[in-house]
Every structure is written in C-alpha cells, then in structure tokens.
Amino acid sequence: MSCSTDLIHHPYQPPTDFEAPQVGVFKASTVIFPNVAAMRTREWMDKSAYTYGLHGTPTTFTLEERLATLEGGTHCILTPSGLAAIAHVDFALLNTGDEVLIPDNAYAPNKSLAEGELARFGITHQVYDPLDVSDLAARITARTRLVWLEAAGSVTMEFPDLVALVQLCKARGVLCALDNTWGAGLAFNAFDLTPGQGDAPLGVDLTIHALTKYPSGGGDVLMGSIVTRSDELARRLKLSHMRLGTGVGANDAEAVLRALPSLPLRYRAQDLAARSLASWCASQPAFSQVLHPALNGSPGHTHWQQLCITPQAPEGLAAGIFSVVMDERFSAAQVDAFCDALHLFKIGYSWGGPMSLVMPYHMASSRVRSSSHLQQGRVVRFCIGLEDVTDLQNDVLRALTAAHLQN
Ligand SMILES: *Cc1c(COP(=O)(O)O)cnc(C)c1O
Q1: Does the C-beta of 179 come closer than 6 Å to ligand 1?
Q2: What's this model's pTM, rounded to 2 decimal places?
Q3: How far apart are CA 145 and CA 114, in angstroms?
Q4: Residue 188 sits in which domain range?
Q5: Is the terminal CB of the chain with fewer CB neighbours within 10 Å at N or C?
Q6: What does the pLDDT read at residue 407?
C-alpha cells in the first residue's frame, strides 16, 4: 500500500481500555459502519448506536445525559445556542393556526422570534402578565398550543407563581415550556414542583437552557439544550432536530462537559456575591429599586422563597444576576456615563462567566403590559462574575461618584 493510503487506512489500533477524568472529544460528520446491515439497523434516537455526527457522538450523548440529570428530566437535545433551543421547541411543536403565549418579561428574542418568524407561518402569539395568573387564564383559548414560562424573568427579575402557572396549563391541557437558564437546574427542579405533601406531582413539560451562561461558565461558548421527561415529546423534538440539522460542535460540547463539575460551586459563589452586592445597592440613594428575587420586597420574592428555599438550601438559591432601577431624576446620558465609568464591570450581553458585566436597558420600549410593580427610571443589569465582591462594590461606588450620581 502506498504511504498516502496508509496514512488514511493505517493498521494500528490503540488499545480500547482508555480511561481519564474527562470525556474524549469525538469529532465526526461521517460515522463508519462495520457493514451494510449495521448501517441499515442502527438506531440513534435511543442513543443505542452511532449513525452520523449530527445524530450524536460519545461526546454529545454524554453531555446530553448529564444535562438531563442536572435538570431532573430524562431526555436532552443539544442546540447551537439558547435561542436556537427556543426556536426549535416552537418549530417542532407549533402548527399553522396555533397560538403561543409568552410572558412579558421573557428573554426578549423569544418575543422577536414569534413576531418575526412564527407569524410568517400563521402561528400567532400573545404576551401575558407573568405576575397575574388570571391574565394567563383569560388568554388561553382552543388555539393555544404552548405557554412559555420564565423564572425569574429577564432583566426585571420578577419571580412568578410558577406552581400556579403550571397548574393552570395542566388544567387547560396546554403544553408548558420553561426557560430554565436562570435556575440552571440548581435553584429548583422544574420537573418536580410538587406544591405540598400529598399533592399530585407537578412539573413543566419541557425546559430549555442557555448553556452559554452557567454551564459553559467561560463566556466563550454558545450552546443550548432542551430537556423533557416525556418520551413522546422527546421523539417529536428529536425528529425535528434531525430534519432541521441544528447540531453542536464537539469542541464546544467538551468545553461544557469540562465546566459542568464546577457548576454548583460557581452558581453558589456567584449567588452569594450577587446577593451581597444587591443588598448594598439597596442602601444607595442613586438606586430607587433593586430587583433580585431573593431580596425582601423584590417582585415575586415570596414565590422565590416557596420554590427555591429547601432543606438542602435553607438560604435558597438564585442566579448571580440582578438589576437596579436608577433614580428617575437621572437622564439616559447620566445612566450611560455611570455604566461607562465602571472598570471591573464590562459592558456586554450574557452572564454566568468569570467576568462581571453591566448593561443599561430602556424597559418602556420592550414591555407590553403595565409594570406598576417597577419604579420609574432606567434599569441597569449587573451580572456577577467571580471577582472579589468588595472590589466589585468599590467599582460601583467609584462609578457613582465619577458620574456625579452620588448624594
Ligand atoms: C442568554 C439567554 C438565552 C439565549 O441564549 P443564547 O445562547 O445567547 O442564544 C435564552 N434565555 C435566557 C433567559 C437567556 O439569558
């Protein structure tokens, strides 16, 4: 055999009993079958065999199984981003004529997706008030196929009465999907929200998770997941996944696998730092309101307590992210100057990484329903990284002074 052929069809086979702490990076589009019969009979949907890179490799199967366990489900599908997971659920489960209901404080691209893409397929949407269960009840019709949930909500961090919202969806026979990025599978179990002893088990039908945030933990990977306990939903989602072709790269999957073992430690550390900084912010006159569900008086605080305080976590668990409402006397330019004056907090989207981030928001332009629970004024979101919290507090204090917002 010539060298060029030998370099491809080399006879050497490494021993098979290799074991190491981390899962290997298996990269493949093509998967080789031992014979035609195997090619014809192999099944990827139940993870019993490999057929094509898009349908799964040892690396992606392993990550999927670990994420399903993390969130309390039994099936997991990986997508190239958190937003792709939301889009995948919509496209797999909604038909022309169906309606999807989205909370007003949802991750904003969820609404844009409905407005810009679902509408083109004759799928309508409505926005409901996540703090008013009766508002959702009034909006569910015979056309409602799917209800999105988010706890806590994006930017304004309201924690809804998730148990009541899920109970309502179940009673009306409507599928409910939770964007579980904030809870990350740690703060509460979305598939077991059992409200009290003796009550029937209660859980969402499926979750999506922006692995981009805490599971990646590095600010350097985009990935999403869909998790469910339903065999039937998993089958539909997997078939759509195969047809739509939205797989993930092996190096990215390995990066998330590598970061998963430290997820609970990072989540807890960022929670503690965020709560400490949020409590301090509550004492600063420049901020008229601090939005963090674990803080007394924050919108939905009692619902957060009900779900996220457990015997294992008596202080409760929360993501390391919160927002402040700036005093309404500050102009947009003053709020921007405050963000610019921060040194450790960098201006950027996303969260869950090592570096703290800040972002100003103009809520009036992105919300449909009235927000009487929010003070007037511009909203600034802080995402807490892994820096020392005293340094972060000093950074905020220095920026308030530099932007002349102090007194
Ligand atoms: C970031 C985020 C997403 C989207 O994740 P990407 O990977 O950035 O697409 C979805 N939902 C929530 C709540 C998020 O914070």
Answers
A1: yes
A2: 0.96
A3: 14
A4: 7-261
A5: C
A6: 63
